[in-house]
Amino acid sequence: MAIKRSGNGKSNNNNDKKTPNKKRQSKKQTNKIETKPSLVRAVATSEDSSEAQIRPNTLSGYIGQKELKETLKIAIAAARGRGEPMDHLLLYGPPGLGKTTMSLIIATEMEVDCKITTAPALERPRDISGLLVNLKPGDILFVDEIHRLNRIAEELLYPAMEDFRLDITIGKGQTSRIRSVPLKPFTLVGATTKVGSISSPLRDRFGLIQRLRFYEIDELTEIVLRTAKLLKYPIEPDAAEEIARRGRGTPRIANRLVRRVRDYVQVQKEPVITQSNAAIALDKYNVDRFGLDWTDRLILSTLIDNFHGGPVGLETIAAATGEDKKTIEEVIEPYLLQIGFLQRTSRGRAVTERARSHLQKS
Ligand code: ADP
Questions:
Q1: Whole-model pTM over 0.85
Q2: Are 255 and 51 a contacting pair, CB within 8 Å?
Q3: Is the Cβ atom of 247 under 6 angstroms away from ligand 1?
Q4: For a Cys staple, 135 with which of 40, 88, 139, 155, CB 3.0–4.6 Å?
């Protein structure tokens, strides 16, 4: 299976995924709030460039997400049996949970190529038509951040997804006409962190819509053990669990923590990652027992100290902490909600008792 990354698509640099960070920086400068670099942001950074080396490439190597795997196993077997491409698939859930990885695995299992791109790279009609006409029979087109597709690109996708046909408008005004170009049957895999922002005509064209969940500690522990093995650094099971507990239910973050702990332990000339040296390393990197970093604690303590714990609107939290609103909503908040540190009410976000007692102890 070959992986092809198109144009400005999702590359190892992940330029598009860095945008929220850039925005955050400019906001920080205007608000003059000092922040520290974080290891626990799920968005990919250039630091994660070695991801390809540790990505699982078979369904059996993909840990966790049991329901998703079962559904896809059936879909893949059925499609292969019919000699057709798999149904179009929409994967949604927070960043770093394995959407791209799953798309590459489907390509391997279907023995086809996977082209990876991201919606912001499909600005002009020719960006998407170029990709579509070059697909070979059965290929997978992975479009990350699909909720960000513009209307023109979306409308080009409708006949492509339904009838494997590209409708190109030639000329302008009254003399314009539509030329239909047949496409090879393909599978579109769309990925998004914001399923609610996808238009219903687009959503309705996906035969399979699947949610990815945060990983349980035991699943993340297994991922940490696997990654340490691939990095060829001995690790004790307790240490893997310590790292997993701080990995925010997210493989991308857990893998990043393994690499940083490995660096620390290696510099300390310790031959094995143990629970105690892993904990020391992660405390040094400012990642606490629940995987919270400086920004999470800033948000929670600002809510407690300045707003009696809430409820407070997202805009106000963003202004008071100097964080980007979108980053809070899409990257920071889902995990805080998941571990029961934050509650979302109709009047805004409120801190829970659980969060208060954690902050008091730490
Ligand atoms: P997303 O596309 O959802 O942002 P990715 O598919 O890029 O996330 O996954 C991030 C990293 O996490 C991958 O490089 C991979 O190594 C790891 N990963 C994700 N899901 C799994 C899994 N189920 N088992 C093992 N590793 C995983």
A1: yes
A2: yes
A3: no
A4: 139
